[in-house]
């Protein structure tokens, strides 16, 4: 590798780390944003999972219940962080300036992606601890680590959906849109109520949703139960669609502001 290329790569990596640090500190300086991210999914486990007799007696059921709320925690973090966060940044004078710099918006975007993953994993910590101490849920450490990595992968479509929202509309509108998108997807995807309890029509419908597909793949890793056959194709299909929407929204925003 030429010396100039190596130096450029090192410089880009430093910029990414700098933006990651800056955005992390910027977020934690508003404690309620972090507390809300950590608290809501954990409270959902505490109030909706812990009291269930099956969650106290059947490890596989308890593990599945905790897993589906972990899926909700990552969905929520990605949609709010990228949907609302990007929309808010676009309203700031600093964001257009960043795009005019030689490094472009890449390092800032990479820092945002890293921070999104950090806060998503942070949201899982208290949730997992409540499930571990107060329910019959049990997994090996190897499975837990695999599930933590997988949940970021299956959460990627929602990250892209968040970016598509954030680059398309204003911050005030983004807040409403994220809420309208998040909660129906969570309910219909079986993240609050186990999909096994759905009526037949809702069960069939939910199998075409990315939230249900992600839930099934995560629970398959956690408990060993088989996901329905279309889970992976459905998740990949939505991921491709949301990625295309995010790219179109970014390019449209770039063209509207700088051309």
Automatic annotation (TrEMBL):
Record-annotated ABC-2 type transporter transmembrane domain positions: 18-221
Protein name listed in UniProt: ABC transporter permease
Species name: Arthrobacter sulfonylureivorans
TM region(s), chain numbering: 30-49, 69-88, 109-133, 139-161, 173-193, 230-250
Pfam (any one): ABC2_membrane
Keywords: Antibiotic resistance, Membrane, Transmembrane, Transmembrane helix
The organism's place on the tree of life at top rank: Bacteria
Membrane topology term: Multi-pass membrane protein
Subcellular location: Membrane
């Amino acid at each position: 590798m030429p010396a100039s290329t190596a130096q450029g790569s090192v410089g880009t990596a430093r910029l990414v780390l700098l933006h990651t640090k800056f955005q992390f500190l910027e977020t934690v300086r508003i404690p309620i944003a972090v507390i809300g991210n950590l608290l809501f999914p954990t409270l959902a486990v505490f109030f909706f999972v812990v009291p269930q007799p099956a969650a106290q007696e059947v490890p596989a059921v308890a593990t599945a219940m905790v897993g589906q709320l972990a899926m909700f925690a990552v969905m929520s973090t990605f949609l709010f962080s990228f949907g609302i966060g990007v929309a808010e940044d676009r309203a700031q004078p600093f964001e257009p300036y960043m795009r005019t710099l030689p490094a472009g918006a890449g390092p800032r975007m990479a820092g945002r992606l890293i921070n999104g993953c950090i806060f998503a994993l942070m949201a899982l910590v208290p949730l997992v601890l409540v499930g571990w101490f107060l329910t019959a849920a049990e997994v090996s450490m190897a499975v837990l680590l695999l599930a933590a990595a997988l949940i970021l992968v299956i959460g990627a479509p929602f990250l892209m959906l968040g970016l598509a929202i954030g680059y398309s509309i204003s911050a005030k509108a983004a807040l409403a849109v994220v809420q309208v998108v998040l909660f129906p997807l969570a309910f219909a995807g079986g993240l609050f109520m186990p999909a096994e309890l759905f009526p037949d029509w809702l069960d069939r419908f939910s199998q075409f949703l990315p939230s249900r597909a992600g839930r099934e793949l995560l629970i398959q890793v956690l408990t060993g139960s088989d996901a329905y056959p279309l889970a992976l194709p459905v998740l990949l299909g939505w991921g491709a669609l949301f990625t295309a929407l995010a790219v179109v929204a970014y390019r449209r925003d770039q063209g509207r502001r700088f051309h």
